[in-house]
Amino acid sequence: xxxxxxxxxxxxxxxxxxxxxxxxxxxxxxxxxxxxxxxxxxxxxxxxxxxxxxxxxxxxxxxxxxxxxxxxxxxxxxxxxxxxxxxxxxxxxxxxxxxxxxxxxxxxxxxxxxxxxxxxxxxxxxxxxxxxxxxxxxxxxxxxxxxxxxxxxxxxxxxxxxxxxxxxxxxxxxxxxxxxxxxxxxxx
Length: 188
Prior knowledge:
Layout: E1 3-6, E2 9-12, E3 15-19, E4 25-32, E5 36-42, E6 46-51, E7 59-65, E8 69-70, H1 74-81, E9 93-105, E10 108-117, E11 120-135, E12 141-152, E13 171-185
Antiparallel strand pairs: 1-2, 3-6, 3-13, 4-5, 4-13, 5-8, 6-7, 7-9, 9-10, 10-11, 11-12, 12-13
């Protein structure tokens, strides 16, 4: 696989990429009971990334079926799927569409876009790093990225909570998003 550099910034070879879900992770963490953190992930995700010759003209579209949420607690997962949180009956997917790709330095990029959850769309910036590219033994070009972001869940209508007798609330407002993606370039 060829990679290129643009003013000393590494990028994968131009082309259209899809996700290798078995080698990727889309996860989150949130404060629980004020002192701890709960982690979860989505077991299904669809990605179309178009890496342009001019990397700043690249695009990213992500669809996450919210019913695929997995926090390793069946009861909590069912609650997250309910109208208290994701309301998957009415809003089955979370989507992200990029609006700008900006080099930050080295192999780091800011991918600004619009995140839609429960029918509410808000701006979100993914802070991404290109981890490298390689040709696998089967002739596929692969590229790996990591990305993080932070959002206020209440701004998307995810306002359910429970007050604690000792002060504070059961679920924190801030959600940390953690992504590790291995992408495969479509063959011409």
